[in-house]
Amino acid sequence: MKGSWRNRPTGSWFSRVWRPWVSLNPFRGRGRSINEPRPVGIRDLVASPDEVVHRPERRWRVIGGFFIMLLVLLLGRLFILQILDYKGSVQSVNANSLRVSTIPASRGLILDRNGHPLVTNVNTTEIRLSRAEAALYPPIKGALASLTGLSVKQINADLNNLQYDPYQPAPILSNAPAKEVEFIKLHPKEFPGVSVLDVATRSYPNGGSVGAQVLGYVGPITGAEIAANPNKGYQTDSTIGKTGIESFYEQYLRGHDGTSTLEVGAYGNILGAVHTTQPKVGDSVVLNIDTGLQKALDSYLAADILTDRKTVDPTTGIYPKAVNGAAIVLDPNNGDVLAMSSYPSYNLNSFVNGLSNTSFHQLLNEGAFNNYAIQGLYTPGSTFKLITATTQMQTGVFPPYKIIDDTGFFKVPGCLQGAHGCIFHDDQSIGAGLIDLPRALTVSSDYYFYNLGYLFWAQQAKYGQTPIQNVATEYGLNSLTNIDLPNEVAGRVDSPAVRKLLHAQAPKAFPNVNWYTGDNIEMAFGQGTTAITPIALANAYATFANGGTRYEPQIAAAIINAHNKVVVRYQPRVLGHVSLPPSVRDPILQGLEGVVMNPSGTAYGTFRTYGNFSLASFPIAGKTGTASNAHGLEPNSLFVGFGPVGHPKYVVVCVVAEGGYGSAAAAPVVVKAFNYLVAHPIKPVTLKAELSVPATSTKKTSKTGAARGSSSNSTTTTTGTSKSSG
């Protein structure tokens, strides 16, 4: 029957599957319907061996293809390693047998304007201990103590010293003896975590206390500093400039490290040197600083403050705290900083020989690491009268030679607040009598400048709301001077806008947000919330002294390399101008001369007491400042002097926080500085290779490239709202 399963071919698929099933069906022939489901076994699904075609060549093809593929992959990998990645392969192999170590470069020197060294180097060997190893294996501290003679207590103090990076080995012993170094090298297993490093440490020919804040110090680099300078070759054991010139000119001073490539055996033994690249010593920085003057100024400032603390203020009857101070000598003709002192101070050798935690925190709490010349903010008091007088002369708000009667107190016209808010007294409520602008400056009359402050506010429709502040901006009192030192801060000059800003930032400290006539009066004679830095004050008077050109103060004069060739010669840089024609300048200069030369002048007696040079041959002009602080505190003491009048060579500034009257605390420092300058005139900068200058520069940048003036250190702000006097 066609189509029947019985008629299917014998070797067909149908017969192989269905016929065995039928034959094995236990219900076959028992009347069960053909449509009933039947069970299927494994034998029903798998063909028998005699029914499968034998194909051995297929297996060999599969196996052969697999091995051919492996051979192709192997040859391809060899091609990549031997041809394409040849250099990388060689480097990988060498890395297993070669070790590269860094040879630290010596830092460049720091020289004064006469070529005398201020900072040099001394090669020493230093023993260091890993904090991690010391924690895992405490007995190492005892072993190290036995070898070096140090106590375990001292070693623990070094490990906990906050001066050192907590993630780097701590220096345990500087200038280590050769025998101890050799013993450690011969017995490395006995001193796990102990390393020996040859370092060039800083040395200070003048003792380490001369110009400490200006020079700055170096220290072990931190992880953050490495991250901030990713492509400059710093290693975990590198040193870096932390403050002062060491920090600002780090890019020149640090030099370039060398390398030593050694071949190392399978067991770590050194087989020999393969290649050595010698380190390149850093460039040296030549400063405008004169060492002799710097030493003298440091001593004058320190002695003055210590004496001031022991001398009763005859006006208040208390001993001034004289908490800190600064002094600066500036060349008004180009901005050269000839000397800069800050007190309290520290000795740079402390960072070479090691400084205990106790001493470090003591200096930190005293503010010794601050450079108050560029970071201290002080209420200027009567030294600000130069700004108000300049505004008066430029605007013509009041004739300079018009006589007024200083009665000792000024009553604000039309004031309805009563006597307390309407009357401003002179410092001692003793009037100066009949005065004009020159005499008002000479005797430091507050009354005269009260009057100017009132006039400018009353006529703001004509002169604007901030004419005095605008002139202060021209003098640079409320901006950075761009001096080449890190962490300079900017001063501020009180104004309606500043008042609102301060209130928004600190409502409790500055509760007053509105601006009234009395605020303008206080601002006109250097009180209120005005606060400026000594370097900005010095630069303002230098601008007046030279006739109106404001220069950028410069510590560094040039960069020279190890072969005494000039790399960079810094030229004077002009920041701005103040309009000071003779008609504006002469009446003011006359008053400033009178401060020193006139018997009625506020500094006349001070110069006669401390001066030992002829004012007739070397005339000085200047201005005292006595800026009131909060109730119960002595006023800030300030004095600025410049000379010789007519052809000024020097501007000298001194500020003593809570030091008392300007003529008593600050002025003696300035007088003594002029004593030195008259006897030892400052010579031009000496450069051994003056004719080999390849380039000049008028712009300097810090090591990080950040804008100058960003401050990370603390500053001292001493402000007040009371009376001011010269």
CATH topology-level fold name of the largest domain:
Beta-lactamase
Shape: elongated
Strand content: 15-25%
Mean pLDDT: 85
Give the class from helix and strand content and strand pairing: alpha+beta
Label this structure with key terms.
alpha+beta; 18% strand; Penicillin-binding protein 2a (Domain 2); six-stranded antiparallel beta sheet; 726 residues; disordered N terminus; 28 helices; Beta-lactamase; 3 domains; elongated
Q: What's the arrangement of secondary structure elements?
A:
Elements: H1 13-24, H2 42-45, H3 56-84, H4 86-97, E1 98-103, E2 110-111, E3 117-129, H5 131-136, H6 139-148, H7 152-159, E4 170-173, H8 178-186, E5 194-203, H9 212-215, E6 218-220, H10 223-228, E7 239-241, H11 244-248, H12 250-253, E8 258-264, E9 270-277, E10 284-287, H13 291-309, E11 324-330, E12 337-343, H14 350-353, H15 357-366, H16 372-375, E13 377-378, H17 385-395, E14 404-406, E15 409-411, H18 419-422, E16 423-425, E17 433-435, H19 437-442, H20 446-458, H21 460-463, H22 467-475, H23 496-505, H24 517-524, H25 534-545, E18 549-551, E19 556-560, E20 566-570, E21 574-577, H26 582-597, H27 604-610, E22 621-627, E23 636-643, E24 650-657, H28 667-679, E25 696-697, E26 717-718, E27 724-725
Parallel strand pairs: 2-10, 13-26, 20-25
Antiparallel strand pairs: 1-8, 2-3, 3-4, 3-5, 6-7, 8-9, 10-19, 11-12, 11-24, 14-17, 15-16, 18-21, 19-20, 22-23, 22-27, 23-24
Helix pairs in contact: 3-4, 13-28, 17-22, 17-26, 20-24, 26-27
